[in-house]
Amino acid sequence: MSTSAAATMDRSDFRNVLVSGTKLGVVTGVGVVAYLVLTRLLPPGVPRDAMLSLLVLATGVLVSLLPGEWAGSRDTEGVAGAAAIGLWGSIAFMAIDIILLRPFKAYPWTWDAIGGGSTWWYLPIWWMLGTFLAWMGGMLTAGRHARGPTTLAGTAMPVVIGAVALSAVGKLAGLPVTLPVVVGAGYTVSLAVLALVSLRKA
């Protein structure tokens, strides 16, 4: 792809980062609320774990790949724009979390107990994770488009397949965590590996 074509696609300007990041924060909030609702409505068991895992995958695809689409990730600037959208999206979700979710005690006490009773321990981790996912998604989007036009579904499919494969290996290995957690970790690893491989082949 020529430099001029990449520049035409690039939408990493400050305004787009703020607008897209805010939308991403809302998407994240919807995913978290849906997870909390399903956790409370469904009895523990394989069906609930399966539904929660599907929700984790769907939300993972959106929060990691939409920033690359919105920033027009085709080159370095576009990838950086995607990462910036991910960072602002995690900050926007933080506002939703503090204003709407925390007052209603949406999370179990064990979540806060990890940080010694503090509700702030996870925020830097959330910012880093949101930025990392969007950064890797932007890299993967740029690498895929360098080899020809692709869609969000086309970019996501190999990542999802990799996540499912890694999750199966993790459960067979007896990891002592729930299936949705294994799926989330598998998705993150799959995304990072495929992003790096995609850029190498671009």
> Rg from C-alpha positions?
17 Å
Instruction: Kindly report how far apart the N and C termini lie.
Output: 10 Å
- Please outline the major beta sheet: none
Query: How many individual helices?
Result: 8
Strand content: under 5%
Overall 3D shape:
globular
Run of helices and strands? HHHHHHHH
Uncertain ranges: 1-7
How helix-rich are the residues, as a percent range? over 70%
How many domains, as an integer? 1
Q: What is the mean predicted local confidence, pLDDT?
A: 89
Secondary-structure content class: mainly alpha
Number of strands: 0
Q: Could you explain how this protein is built, in words?
A:
The N and C termini lie close together (10 Å). The chain has helices at 3-9, 14-41, 46-71, 76-101, 109-113, 123-146, 152-172, 179-201. The model is unreliable at 1-7 (pLDDT under 50). The longest helix is centred in the N-terminal third of the chain and has 28 residues, at 14-41. The protein has 202 residues and is mainly α. It has one domain (3-201). It contains 8 helices and no strands.
